[in-house]
Amino acid sequence: MRFSGLLGWMCAAVLSAQPVTFDRIVNSKAEPQNWLTYWGDYGAQRYRDLKQIDTSNVKNLRVEWIFQTGQSGAFETVPLVVDGIMYFTAANGFAYSVDARSGRQLWQFKYPLPEGVKLCCGTVNRGLAILGDRLFMVTPDAHVLALEARTGRLIWNREMASTDQSYGATLAPVVVKDKVIVGVSGGEFGIRGFVDAYDAKSGERAWRFYTVPAKGEPGGETWLADSWKRGGGATWMTGTYDPKLNLLYWGVGNPGPDLFGEVRKGDNLYTAGLVALDADTGKLKWHFQFTPHDTHDWDGCETPMVLDIKWKGRDRKVLAQANRNAFFYLLDRETGEFLMAKSFARQNWATEIDPKGRPVLSRNAEPSPEGNRVCPGLAGAANWMPPSYNPETGWFYFPVREQCDVFFSAPPVYVEGKAYWGSMFRGQTEEKEWGLLKALDPLTGETKWDFRYYKAPWAGTVATSGGLIFSGDEDGYFMAFDAKTGKNLWKINTGNRLVTAPITYTVGGRQYVTMPSGSALLTFALPN
Amino acid sequence: MDKTVRKLLLVFIPAALCAQSSFDQGRALFRSNCAFCHGMTATGGRGPNLVSASLSHGDTDASIKRVIRIGVPGTTMPAFSEFTDEEVGQVIQYLRSLSKSAARKETVPGNAPHGKQVYEEKDCSGCHRIAGQGSIFGPELTRIGGARSIEYLRDSIVKPSADVPEGYEGVTVVLKNGQRIRGLRINEDTFSIQLRDPGQQTRMFQKDELMELTHEKDSMMPAYDRLSAADLQDLVAYLATLRGAVDSSAAIKKARGIK
Predict the structure, then answer these.
(1) pLDDT for B74
(2) Model's pTM, two decimal places?
(3) Contacts of A416 in chain B (CB under 8 A)
(4) Fewest C-beta in 10 Å: which of A257, A427, B19, B38?
(5) What does the alpha-carbon distance between residue A440 and residue A459 come to, in Å, rounded to a whole number?
(6) Whether A473 and B189 lie within 8 Å, measured CB to CB
(7) Using one digit for the tens of pLDDT, what is the confidence trace for A414-453?
């Protein structure tokens, strides 16, 4: 025990001398002790070959340390762990570095948000990216920052777009080669969304891809008149990446105004869809639209997971996504070809998805002056909470929200800087919501097991070779499940709703599991 | 460039169109935020009638605005503090358009003093509390006359299962020894449930200790559907007089917002 601890310490000490390179991130699964990107790996499988904590001993898991940020607001960060050091963000522009074994702080950074600045989307933040000795984060007022990893010192600061036009940012950036790739929030405020790439060294913008094409550009014909100018299409969640194809996969948010489609007749490309971009140039390789002409705020921003699977007897490179619209999709990630869609939650808006992947719409599922009850509700049957994949079971593990809303419509007037919903939904209904943790076979879309939560969840999952799935519910329970059976093996009431996904890592040969709750970062381990 | 064009457009939007849009916005705001309690036509339901009954907190624009903005502490009327002045104005305008033709009635038919006798004869205080008197098992009635429409009060007596307010949902649990316990759900999560039993005792369980857990569809209140028409009318008249002060420090559960 002592010996392995010493060995681990030596390994950690040696590794800490190595900067985080693009190659290391590409091969992140080869270093399961670390968590090098928001997703843990470029493909967002969120699987770790760590088995010190397993199905037989997880019942002994206990709190190892707690870091209190004292920050109010949803704590949606996913920490990075690099060779024993943890980096994470909190709401209100904070970033921290701590000893991943003890939770003791190394430094703290606070972004000086300009006074009186109007924020579209609150001050929530989902985390950092790392390359070399630099960390990258976005700010509530839509800036991108580079920080020195050892000190938290600000190196550069670039504005993506103006808060006057209601742009904001909440996501964790992703680094590809020498570029920092980011997206924006503000889809409820009539923005025109984009994905940006910045040179990691200089901070200069390398490319921009608009998710809403202008009149005259390909796709521009899918927008009525000049509605594209405030067409939404926010890019508020981190994309995934395939290093072999050099393609970035980025989810695109709802069209604006959210719930009133009359003023933007057409399919409204590329909103409520997914774009595949060349990571060097930002050029569009292909696109797929899950919900053409969306009127229910069903962003396409859910995790586009990269999987290599045998599909109908053939090795296929696919993307798997549990979409907000209640369908699970498989797409060919080289071409964007639609392979399969299967509903995983109650839905009444589509009678089917046709062989090309286009939904066939039900009647009475549009927002109306009298209100129409639609499942899933505005928040969707899935949302940004990351799923995970266990290669041993071959299953996809994700939280499901069972909740419906009554959607009303009213013609909107666009006023710059103001919400541009174009109607409302009833935030109060007779119907009880509930949730599931679901294990699904991505080859068929069939459920392998469900674990029922009392409320619709907002927490993602992580999978380990210890046969475990960790996740959390809306009541604040952080839990471990048997990946094969769905049996709940361990739980702790953390005292606050869980609104991000857990990670697992090791330091000195000891495995840890970390989950934010409230304003506390909780880290668990087996007793020494 | 974009900005200038948009500003010009806004200036030239005809005034009539703005008025219509404002009415539509008020209607949509009302239907999506208020109708759940006050009814689609604002004639009341779980919440009071806003069209033809007298408004407990005054019917000037300023007093309605105040109620919308800060809610009614101690009741189920939440604060809509995120509404802009313009939006509150639109809701009030829409309410005014609904109540234009309806005269406000100050009186409720029936003999309220006799209704009070009916209340006592039927032992309503065995479950309900008025001004500190009675049981905490069922909903507090101290201010029920100001909080509910007449129709809702009548329905609550004869068909209590038609609408069971949050916090008063009945639950039956069966313990592993076969013991059955019924109660009102105080709280519940994925792994535990907390109840109040008819003896006003708090009962708390882990779900894995239970053999069975049933969420009752029906109200735990018996239906008083055999009251004479006169007794029922008098009882409703009595309940309608109950407009006492409530503990304004009580927490209000706000409707879920947009996520």
Answers:
(1) 74
(2) 0.89
(3) 3, 6
(4) B19
(5) 17
(6) yes
(7) 777 777 777 666 655 668 899 999 999 999 999 999 999 9
